[in-house]
């Protein structure tokens, strides 16, 4: 059964109308979401994911933002994840939320946590929402749904994109047969980040039961509207799908023919499997010194890099809806990105330049971007900030989630 916007109850729509105009931190906002009539007030919503730490990359950032968004709307978010080396350190990314991490037995790639199902059942959740697929949490979520009969949602986060499903085919075939197909069949609804992802979900699952809601951008973080130096940055996972090879080759070609402005720098920041990081370091051994890989950065260090970046680049081969782009826009950095980032609003409004995915198109986009005068760059920056503070703002996305969970809750049996 498709759970669509038309199913959202009157109470959710009425609550959304009442919240408009009140900042999420204001006293009036707090009073409204704590009212018993508000759809998420007191709802226990479980967020199940493979990692509640920086090791989860963009999915972790999305879950952390989602948890705070739900908390601010009166829900009680309960996060369940597999334990890893940064779980304790990153727990503060879920303020005011219940966080449960469980040890993994056996290969981390599978993520079998023997106590996960019992922990989910003991939490007396109203709804369970799985973020990410292809690991044991999918099996645990499916078991929870079967035993409780309550609403169960799944956000694949781009993991059903053909580029992804075409890699590691044996592992994914085993996962489909072992637990994913049961999990998908038991889902009350899927959450898609884009219409394109909704089509991927329908193709894999054989039915259309997706609601499209974008990731929210972080709060705007810009202190001065000044033109920045010729700094281009990449922040994200070090992985072949990010297409850093084309970015490095394009920059190197521009450098070789003297087409970069004086002082131009390309900074690559991120984490990844040891093999992928080793490949990146090897590729940089013959690259110009104006390209630097600085390793993973978090918190204030990441904020500082974005704040001094004139552009953020992501010539990706495959994405769901990248948090890196939303973070860049919120920091006042326009973007160079491929159409695979699934954010056409960036191109339509002028917040982004389509850089394509091959060396030639990326080089052309870099040259065009770095040649912009102050007025042209500020126009792009204004467009980026308008998107992060408007249709992708936490407020607008939160109101859509209120309707989504209200529709889900109406399908769950009472305790």
From TrEMBL:
<keyword id="KW-0808">Transferase</keyword>
<dbReference type="Pfam" id="PF13692">
    <property type="entry name" value="Glyco_trans_1_4"/>
</dbReference>
<dbReference type="InterPro" id="IPR028098">
    <property type="entry name" value="Glyco_trans_4-like_N"/>
</dbReference>
<protein>
    <submittedName>
        <fullName>Glycosyltransferase</fullName>
    </submittedName>
</protein>
<feature type="domain" description="Glycosyltransferase subfamily 4-like N-terminal">
    <location>
        <begin position="57"/>
        <end position="215"/>
    </location>
</feature>
<dbReference type="GO" id="GO:0016757">
    <property type="term" value="F:glycosyltransferase activity"/>
</dbReference>
<dbReference type="Pfam" id="PF13579">
    <property type="entry name" value="Glyco_trans_4_4"/>
</dbReference>
<dbReference type="InterPro" id="IPR050194">
    <property type="entry name" value="Glycosyltransferase_grp1"/>
</dbReference>
């Amino acid at each position: 059964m498709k759970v669509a916007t038309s199913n959202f109850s009157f109470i959710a729509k009425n609550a959304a109308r009442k919240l408009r105009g009140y900042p999420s931190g204001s006293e009036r906002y707090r009073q409204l979401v704590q009212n018993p009539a508000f759809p998420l007030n007191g709802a226990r919503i479980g967020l199940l994911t493979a990692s509640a730490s920086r090791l989860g990359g963009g999915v972790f950032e999305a879950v952390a933002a989602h948890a705070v968004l739900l908390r601010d709307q009166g829900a009680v978010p309960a996060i369940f994840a597999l334990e890893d080396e940064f779980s304790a350190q990153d727990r503060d990314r879920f303020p005011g939320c219940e966080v449960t991490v469980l040890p993994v037995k056996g290969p981390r790639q599978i993520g079998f946590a023997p106590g996960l199902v019992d922990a989910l059942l003991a939490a007396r959740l109203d709804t369970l929402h799985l973020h990410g697929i292809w690991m044991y949490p999918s099996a645990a979520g499916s078991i929870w749904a079967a035993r409780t009969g309550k609403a169960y949602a799944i956000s694949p986060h781009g993991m059903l994109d053909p580029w992804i499903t075409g890699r590691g085919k044996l592992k994914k075939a085993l996962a489909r047969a072992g637990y994913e197909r049961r999990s998908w069949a038991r889902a009350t609804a899927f959450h898609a980040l884009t219409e394109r992802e909704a089509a991927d979900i329908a193709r894999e699952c054989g039915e259309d039961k997706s609601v499209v809601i974008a990731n929210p951008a972080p709060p705007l973080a810009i202190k001065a509207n000044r033109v920045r130096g010729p700094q281009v940055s990449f922040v994200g996972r070090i992985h072949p799908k990010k297409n850093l090879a084309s970015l490095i080759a394009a920059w190197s070609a521009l450098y070789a023919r003297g087409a970069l402005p004086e002082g131009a720098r390309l900074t690559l920041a991120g984490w990844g499997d040891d093999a992928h990081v080793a490949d990146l370091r090897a590729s940089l051994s013959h690259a110009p010194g104006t390209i630097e890989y600085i390793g993973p950065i978090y918190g204030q260090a990441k904020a500082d890099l974005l704040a001094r970046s004139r552009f953020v680049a992501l010539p990706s081969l495959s994405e769901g809806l990248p948090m890196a782009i939303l973070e860049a826009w919120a920091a006042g950095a326009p973007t160079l990105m491929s159409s695979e980032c699934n954010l056409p609003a960036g191109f339509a409004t002028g917040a982004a330049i389509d850089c394509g995915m091959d060396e030639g198109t990326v080089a052309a986009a870099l040259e065009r971007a770095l040649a912009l005068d102050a007025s042209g760059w500020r126009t792009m920056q204004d467009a980026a900030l308008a998107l992060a503070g408007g249709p992708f703002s936490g407020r607008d996305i939160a109101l859509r989630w209120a309707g989504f969970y209200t529709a889900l809750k109406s399908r769950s049996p009472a305790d």
